[in-house]
């Protein structure tokens, strides 16, 4: 008789455990996604008037993130990593709001957080699963010799990179992709593609993506321009949509001119003032007073929110004396 009562008691405890487990399981953790270096809100609410609030990062060995009791923040035990980056909404604590604000979020902040609140009557716990994202901001593409390089920096989580060409039948299998993680745990990605001399007669695109966003850069087939007098006009890639940013560069390094969006005005960089005659609506650049020193590669880069379009133009001076052709 006594034995069976104990058994019934055990069954009851097991039943309660299962129930509690299921309840926690069904309720799950709240997913919060925040952007690298931005501000982040970890929500937490409770019933009653909290006397004690403790925030912990449980996935990092139960680090103390922020505590509040005796009507004030208690930061003596706060982990060094969160110093100066946390706050509660003190004026709303009495209204059941124990949400934590975290600023300048790092990749290391990713993980599971526990919000513990205790009121006179009871204590409550809730969990937040924080994910950090550093979206792909810009994809760079350029060609030097017969190597096309595509790259982007400061991405999280780990990105993927894919090449494609304008003529889908031609493969882009000869690529080498390198991914490096920085000290702040962000990813730099870079890929190079070797093109045969005959294979440069098409456009190459490179797409870098995470599961949250993607950006593309296209390198248009190169053009060769000769100038016969001291003036010439070089074209940008064809662009059906309006672009938000234009930059012209010389030999992959020097900036010549930039223009943003629908602006009519443009900024000319030092050393190029007397050579930039005009920048057209479509971005084409008219140069004047050119000398042999201006021979080289002129890159036009147009970008908008999704895509960067690049064309590289090789500009050479036409031999004037009709003599030796190089
Ligand atoms: C707590 O207060 C902040 C600031 O007013 C608000 O953004 C947030 O939504 C509130 N959270 C909850 C759980 O009430
Ligand atoms: C890839 O490029 C290397 C270096 O130019 C070359 O030796 C190799 O044959 C290429 N492979 C393919 C499959 O094109
Ligand atoms: C990642 O890219 C940034 C920006 O170009 C650079 O400063 C940094 O050194 C790179 N880090 C690694 C590990 O490649
Ligand atoms: C595509 O590749 C073939 C060889 O496989 C080559 O003959 C052809 O020129 C390439 N097309 C372009 C547009 O580069
Ligand atoms: C620009 O690059 C070309 C080769 O593409 C080179 O011949 C020329 O000397 C370079 N010009 C300057 C000013 O660096």
| Model regions low in confidence, pLDDT < 50 over at least 5 residues | 12-26, 322-326
Q: Could you tell me the strand content as a percent range?
A: over 45%
CATH superfamily of the largest domain: Immunoglobulins
Helix share, percent: under 10%
Query: Over all CA atoms, what is the radius of gyration?
Result: 30 Å
- Major beta sheet, strand line-up: 12-15-16-24-23-18-19-20
Number of helices: 1
Small molecules (ligands, ions, cofactors) in the structure: 2-acetamido-2-deoxy-beta-D-glucopyranose
Q: What would you call the structural class? A: mainly beta
Largest sheet: 8 strands, mixed
CATH class of the largest domain: Mainly Beta
The count of DSSP E runs of length 2 or more, i.e. the number of strands, is: 24
CATH-level-2 architecture of the largest domain: Sandwich
Taken together, the total number of domains comes to 3
**Global geometry:** elongated
Write a concise keyword list for the protein shown above.
signal, 24 strands, binds 2-acetamido-2-deoxy-beta-D-glucopyranose, disordered C terminus, Immunoglobulin-like, 6-stranded mixed sheet, disulfide bond, Ig-like_fold
């Amino acid at each position: 008789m006594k034995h069976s009562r104990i058994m019934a008691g055990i069954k009851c405890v097991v039943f309660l455990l299962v129930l509690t487990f299921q309840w926690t399981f069904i309720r799950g953790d709240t997913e919060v996604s925040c952007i690298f270096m931005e501000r982040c809100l970890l929500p937490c609410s409770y019933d009653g008037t909290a006397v004690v609030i403790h925030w912990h990062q449980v996935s990092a060995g139960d680090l103390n993130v922020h505590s509040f009791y005796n009507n004030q923040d208690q930061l003596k035990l706060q982990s060094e990593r969160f110093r100066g980056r946390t706050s509660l909404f003190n004026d709303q604590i009495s209204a059941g709001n124990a949400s934590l604000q975290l600023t300048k979020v790092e990749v290391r902040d990713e993980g599971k957080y526990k919000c513990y609140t205790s009121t006179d009557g009871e204590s409550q716990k809730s969990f937040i699963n924080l994910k950090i994202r550093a979206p792909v901001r810009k994809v760079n593409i350029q060609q030097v010799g017969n190597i096309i390089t595509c790259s982007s920096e400061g991405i999280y989580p780990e990105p993927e990179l894919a090449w494609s060409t304008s003529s889908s039948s031609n493969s882009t299998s000869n690529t080498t992709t390198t991914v490096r993680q920085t000290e702040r745990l962000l990813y730099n990605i870079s890929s190079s593609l070797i093109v045969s001399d005959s294979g440069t007669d098409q456009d190459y695109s490179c797409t870098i993506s995470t599961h949250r966003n993607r950006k593309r850069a296209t390198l248009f087939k190169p053009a060769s321009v000769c100038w016969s007098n001291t003036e010439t006009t070089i074209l940008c890639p064809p662009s059906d949509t309006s672009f938000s940013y234009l930059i012209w560069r010389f030999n992959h390094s020097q900036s010549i001119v930039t223009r943003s969006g629908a602006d009519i005005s443009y900024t000319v960089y030092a050393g190029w003032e007397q050579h930039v005659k005009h920048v057209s609506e479509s971005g084409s650049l008219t140069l004047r007073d050119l000398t042999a020193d201006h021979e080289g590669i002129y890159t036009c880069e147009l970008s908008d929110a999704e895509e960067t379009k690049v064309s590289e133009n090789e500009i050479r001076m036409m031999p004037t004396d009709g003599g030796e052709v190089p």
